Amino acid sequence: MGVPPALHRLSRLAPLDPVAVSALTEAMGRPQHYRPRRDLMVEGRDIASPQLILSGWAARVRILLDGRRQFLNFLLPGDVVGHYHHHSPVAPTSVITLTEVTTCVPPDWGTSPSLDEAYAVAHALDEAYLLAQIARLGRMNAMERIGDLMLELQERLAMSGLTQGASYDLPITQETLADALGLTAVHVNRMLQAARRAGDLIWFSRSMTIPDPKALSRKVGRAQVRVSSG
Predict the structure, then answer these.
(1) Which residues pair with 97 in a beta bridge?
(2) Nearest Cα to 76, choosing from 200, 168, 1, 142?
(3) Looking at the whole model, is its pTM more than 0.85?
(4) Quick one: CATH architecture of 142-222?
């Protein structure tokens, strides 16, 4: 049996010592299961406990008064959400499940120096990906937005050991993708067809393939996210 995706990602962020691995393994032995379209956290409400995503996809979302929604970023296996240092934290955004999701309550800060380092890098990456989303929505055209996000998802899923060569599972709808990119579902569909004709992206049966990630990165102007010089 392979390394669980969450443990795989956190160990990629920082070398985990035996205390950290043991604490994470124990925490993952108490999973919580959620069906799609369930709230993990609700904007403005107290965070009952942080969550470590073990499997499935969730998303941070802001819902406007008229019902429109903006997905701020996707949460993937190995991501930690709501893990703050201050007392009585409230959720800055809602977090909803997009697929069936399994989570656990992660070990506390201070459990292990190596785990604290992994948490710190994870928080830095969260910030970096949110900043990338701001730039994506503010300055990129539709094709660049789609290509940049697909490359980001490939990069993040690879950290959890969840890519298969040039492909990865993409269990979301075009409508969800549109709400993440500030586009209409019709426009997303047109851009995906154009990307397929160009040989840049192939989305088929809940699987995304990027035949040449380096070429697509050059085309959309993407640089790999880095938060450490190490």
Answers:
(1) 58
(2) 168
(3) yes
(4) Orthogonal Bundle (1.10)
